[in-house]
Amino acid sequence: xxxxxxxxxxxxxxFKSVKELGDKTLSQLDNEQLHWAIHEESNSIAVxxxxxxxxxxxxxxxxxxxxxxxxxxNRDDEFTDSLQTKEEIMTVWEQxxxxxxxxxxGLTEAxxxxxxxxxxxxxxxxxxxxxxxxxxxxxxxxxxxIAKQLKGSEWQTLSIARGQSQAxxxxxxxxxx
Length: 177
What we know:
The chain is about 60% helix and about 5% strand. It is mainly α.
């Protein structure tokens, strides 16, 4: 496998991991928690989901051939809390990820040498992918952080539980011996 194919395989794996963290977090929350915001200038999880999905659909529809900021996107509206139910929120979440992952899976090594346009500015395809890695990870991190605060002691950890690091490391070492 060459470096381009390796890179595409790695980023697909990493993005799926980011989505999985979001999925596991969202599954722990009820509708009220999804709409909670600490104050009016803060974003609820529902708003973050709407924004991430809007970004994914805009950036990754016709990724290689059209500007990533589509005329049909209303970014300002993404920051209004208009999704009513958890089902709507989950539908919007999945729509964005499906558009994004489908486009990412369709990229080839040759595509990595090309350029795309975002808001009229040219970016290498690799830079555009890495920008989104940073952007989506940041927002999923926000979702996780808000959810942990809301759930408190009812939070179901997404990684190694507190006090379990040594046991986890030992099990991984045994697994790979």
